[in-house]
Each structure stands twice: as C-alpha cells, then as structure tokens.
Amino acid sequence: MKKLQAVRCTVNRMIRLWLLAVSLGAGQAGAEGIQSLDVLSPPLKAAVSDTNAVPFAIFSAGGQLSGGMAKDILDLVAQELRSPVQYLDIPRARLEPWLVSGDAEVGCFLNPDWVNQPKRFDWTDTLFFSRQLIIRRGDSAPIRRLADLYYKRVGTTFGFIYPELQQAFNERLIMRDDAQSLQSNLKRLAQRRLDAVMAVDLSYFYLMERQQFDTEFVAEPIWSEPPGVFCAVSQQSPRRQAILRAFSRLKAQGIMEQLILKYKGAAPT
Questions:
Q1: At a CB cut-off of 8 Å and minimum separation 6, what does 100 contact?
Q2: Model's pTM, two decimal places?
Q3: Around 96, how many Cα atoms within 13 Å sit in the side-chain half-sphere?
Q4: Cys staple from 194: which of 101, 155, 247, 249, with CB 3.0 to 4.6 Å?
C-alpha cells in the first residue's frame, strides 16, 4: 500500500512538472505570436499626392509613387510601427478632410499655417525648415516685397495655401494661377504666360539640377522667415501617439538631415 502511494506521488509530481512545462511553452509561444502580429498590424494610411513637388514625392510615368522624401520617411515610420504602408494618392484639397475623418492617418510635408483647421490634427516635431522662393525670368524686375507682385500673374499649386500672399489673392491685387506641378509652372513662366512662380528651395534646386528650361530663371527668397515643415497626424488614428513617437525617434537619429543631404540640389552661386 505504501509502495502504491509512493508511485502515485511520483506520477502526480511528474504530471505537475509536465503541466508547468506546457504552460511555460504556451506562454512563450503566445509572446512570439504577439510579436508576429506586429507584422500583420493594419497598414499605415499615408496621403501622398502628385501635387507634392519633387523631391518630396517622385512618381513613375505610370503614376505610382516610386521615391522621394515622403516615401523614404514614411517607410521608416512604418518600420518603427512594424506595419506596411498604404499610400493614398489624393489631391491636396482633399488631404485635410481625409485626415479629419481618419481615412488618412498621416500627411507630409505641412505646416499649421498652411491648413485651414490646424487644431484638428496632431503635429510632429519640426522636421526641417524650408525657404520659400519667388521664381522670375532673368530679364524681369527684381521682386523684393509684396507690392512688386501687384497686378502680376503668379504660378501656384492646386490646393496649396500661401500665407504671405493670401490677402493679396483675396483682394485680387495678385492673380493666382494654379497648376498641378512646379514643372508645369516653370514651363509656363519660360513661355511668358506667368510673371512669377512660387516654389520652395528644396524642390526648385532639385528640379533645376535635372531639367533644362529655355529661359534663365532667378530665385529670390520671400521676405518672411523660413517656415518649419511638419507632418500632420489624424486625431482619429488609434495609434497616433505611436506615430508621433516614431517621427521623434527618427529625427533624433538624424534621419531628416540625411534625407535633406540626399535630395538637396546645389543652389546657384
């Protein structure tokens, strides 16, 4: 009898040890399963429109996003989130409604002064500063103040806001003439269909290194201080804080400076 009880105790002890081992194994498998779910997390819905000038967004001949700063930085943000990216090609005018509704989670490169309702979005840290330029033909008069643009036709981009010129646009002191891209505006400037074109330094110098125009252009900095450039994050995104932290980590690692160096053209001397 005592021998039978000893056998039962031994068996029970073995069963308990086996159950503990199974339990620990299941826990480890569960943890690995949770980590693997990160790879299957929902795609980051990123709005990038072909109205974004190069090198912020570079599209193939077929209209697919193929490169540019926006793709580079958003691919890295998605890696931080362990998520794929769903790039949404939407017009600039639809970007804000999509961010408000959550149909898009993030849009780059923006500034609170360039949107209608900045408080409806969360904003990243300042990613970099961008000098605003007024491009004119070399044979035209210098443009150093707002009044120098009065009664002139200025090439702008669909859906974009130009705070320094907005009141003059509203009062019809300056004629705003929208196009889809900076390239289109520069072609029209060369053809004398425009008197000037609005651009940012990174886009203009990048383009001038890669494309020839029949006319010599002069780029003059606008009279205001260079604005900061940010990304806007939808307040409807359940992971908006994680997205903001991802941007902050990438900036702290010097990624933005590396991208600026990658795409920055040489300003003419």
A1: 117, 120, 121, 234, 235, 236
A2: 0.78
A3: 15
A4: 155
